[in-house]
Amino acid sequence: MNRRMKYWVMLAASVAVLVAVIVWPVKRPEEKKLPEKNEILGVLQEQSQIATTEVTIRKMGVYDSETQIASLNPAKWKLGRRLAVIPVDVTIRYGIDLTEMKEEDLQFVGEDTIQIRLPKPKIIDKSFCPVTNQDEIVTLSTGLRDKVGETTIQQIKTMAFEEVVNQDEQLRKQLADELTHNTEAVFTSLLEAINLHPIFIY
Predict the structure, then answer these.
(1) In a domain, 11, yes or no
(2) Position 81 in a domain
């Protein structure tokens, strides 16, 4: 093969490679498609209400022989009149009601980072055990050993339950750090499942 023939062969090969590079489809990495805000909101609201923090508070209910049901405030107890002290365990679950969230509470602040304004935590569920353990009832009467009736016990438990629930604002302040930490952990888990990293504002 003479020099001129070699030149034309190499030129043809170069052109063929160039055409192949231009024409052959280049496989690019697939772009990560992020969900729209309304889709994110839909995913979150499917969870409805999320309970993130649970607290159980023991109140001591008091049966008074004169007034039948006494104040739960020990300062108002009168020696010699109270017949029994009844422990009441009140359980409160705090969390977030996701139906309160709006699209404007979600803002993209980066390629895969979303800023979230969360609703304030609230009571999601509250309860007390209606079953009475007679062994836990402490008699403090002046020698009388009469048992307190079940109806009265339930009234006392209801009183204790309502008193705890009425302290909701104070409880939320006491649990503020735990509520914040637990709520952010739950939301981070939900959003990272759809390739988003949240930042929270309050």
Answers:
(1) no
(2) yes
Q: How many domains does the chain have?
A: 1
Compute the distance between CA of residue 75 and CA of residue 58 in angstroms, rounded to an integer: 18
Per-residue pLDDT, 141: 54
Q: Judge whether 151 lies within some domain.
A: yes
73-99 confidence digits (pLDDT tens): 656 656 555 567 888 999 999 998 888
Rounded Cα gap, residues 112 and 105, in angstroms: 16
pLDDT value of position 123: 94
Give the residue numbers spanning the domain of 104: 34-201
